[in-house]
Amino acid sequence: MTESLTIQLPQLRDPQLRVLMRPATAKDAAMTAVVLERAGIEARTCADLPEVLREMAEGAGALLVSEELLSGSGAAELAAAVAAQPPWSDLPVLILARQGADSRAISTAMEGMANVTVLERPLRVASLVSALRSALRARRRQYELRRMLDELNEADRRKTEFLATLAHELRNPMAPLSTALAILKRKPLTSEAALPYYELMGRQLDHMVRLVNDLMEVSRITRGKIELQLDELALEKVIRGAVELSRPLMDAGRHALGLHIADASLAVKGDGVRLTQVFSNLLNNAAKYTPEGGRIDVFLEHDGHGHAVVRVKDSGTGIPAAMLDAIFDMFVQVSGTARAAQGGLGIGLTLVKSIVELHGGTVSARSEGADRGSEFTVSLPLLGHGARTSTESTTPEAAMAVNHRILVVDDNRDAAESLETLLGLLGAKVAVAFNGPDALAKAELFDPSLAILDIGMPGMDGCELARRLRAHPRLHGIGLIALTGWGQPDDRLRIAQAGFDHHLLKPVDVDELTLALQKLERRAAG
To answer: Quick count: other Cβ atoms within 10 Å of Cβ 170?
Structure first.
């Protein structure tokens, strides 16, 4: 072929899903380009086979090539290029063949490539568009598989690094323990002479216990086994307690510490021990990752919107921009900082995030880059601004209510309003409706993340309301919990078919309700 094909479509939105095409003639190329553009399919016309192969390297959703392009060694070259792609890739290749043709080129292509579709010319427009859309749907699934494989590989890499760090950190205290034991076994010592070795062994044992406790703490939190002992707390006292715990590391690094605490007392509802752990972990991190003689500042402020904000800022090694989003994840460590941190498992920030979220708060990190310091910000709801008011122990499942805007719908006013009060005590924002139409109107304005619906309402019952919420363009992803006095298998099937995520029987059991919230939270995180 000697004809020059120069058809170009507008700027491609997603090169990974574009169609690379080389029809038989320039006229065919022009007509095909127009058809695909109208169908909303991204495409690029290539002049020859070498250009097709070059563009494949940049990404493609499918190939649309003429039989003529595969003449000579073309079919073998294309098959070799497709075979060289990663294992997850099975690039769809659509061949436009002459009517009734059974050429050697097509046979070679079909033998060398697994995902080949032969379309005889002349071809109906609808058939071409349908074939390409099917190919692109399959290609999207391949990209999704690639993403999942990449995430699994990354998770495996992080876990491997974590286990290596764990082995290293456990081995460190074992060495002096072993040495001290060997000395005590081989050399008779008076009690006074042996005391330094006992003290050494005690320090190393404490270090190992601290490492194991951190691991157990993460395990308890992730399995929902931790309980918060809530009380009214003056946050400045919590911070001063954390400073005292971290003082040995501060002094060892000869760091200057600045405390900038708001004049007015800021009170929160929280677990004093756990919040002290949060801020001491942040201060310990700052001390570990800051070179000797650095500066660490702690700010306690009111954000003007019902939250206390604590900022821990250091002049240390900083955090690369690529790590900021993952710094609180399990098994994540900032590469190149293990020595600077003077040991540790790198799970302290995972604990910080989990405990802060159990208190209905948030934590974030920022850094201007390597050697430019870091700043961690913790935001906690003040008393009277969304914090839970119960002084009883609370479970992480209950704490998850803080994350929700909940619409309660029940034609029994006492039932609806009492459930509203309970959910409010758990920290949720709640709206109440007493029938289906009222619920749909309130959902538009309230924008709930979760709805608890009574099934047996007159008029529009809970199942019909659930179907309408699922059909709503903005609310279709809402969590739905059915509340009913019926628990027979047929009832449960009808409720599931209506789109509910969970089914609770009346009267509401708080443990079952909080367990349902936990499952919804896990689904959202997944």
So the answer is: 14
**Residue environment code for 175-194, b if the CB has 16+ CB neighbours within 10 A, otherwise e:** eebeebeeeeeeeeeeeeee
Rounded distance, CA 263 to CA 271, Å?
A: 23
Specify whether the CB–CB gap between 451 and 478 falls below 8 A: yes
- Nearest residue to 268 via CA among 367, 396, 398, 356: 356
CA–CA distance from 506 to each of 335, 432, 453, 503 (Å)? 52, 17, 12, 10
Q: Which residues contact 443 (CB under 8 A, 6 or more apart)?
A: 407, 451, 469, 472, 475, 478
Q: How many residues are recorded in the chain?
A: 526
Q: CA geometry: angle at 273 spanning 237 and 359, to 5°? A: 90
Would you put residue 120 in left (φ > 0), alpha (ψ -120 to 50) or beta?
Answer: beta
Question: Is 243 within 8 Å of 257 (Cβ atoms)?
Answer: yes
| Alpha helices by DSSP H, 400-487 | 413-425, 436-446, 462-471
| Residue 167 identity | A
Q: Are strands 450-454 and 479-484 parallel, antiparallel or unpaired?
A: parallel
pLDDT in tens, the chain (526 residues): 334 444 443 444 667 889 999 998 888 888 899 999 899 998 999 999 999 999 998 889 999 998 888 888 888 899 899 888 888 999 999 999 887 656 787 888 888 888 988 888 888 899 999 999 999 999 999 999 999 998 888 777 767 766 666 676 677 677 778 888 888 888 888 888 899 888 888 877 876 776 676 666 666 665 555 667 788 999 999 998 888 888 888 888 999 999 998 777 889 999 888 898 889 889 988 998 899 999 999 999 998 888 999 999 999 988 888 788 778 776 555 554 444 444 455 567 877 888 898 899 999 999 988 888 999 999 999 986 544 333 333 444 444 556 688 999 998 888 888 888 888 877 788 999 999 999 999 999 998 989 999 988 888 998 999 999 999 988 888 989 998 765 555 667 788 888 898 888 776 767 678 778 777 776 665 5
Q: Three-class SS of residue 336?
A: coil
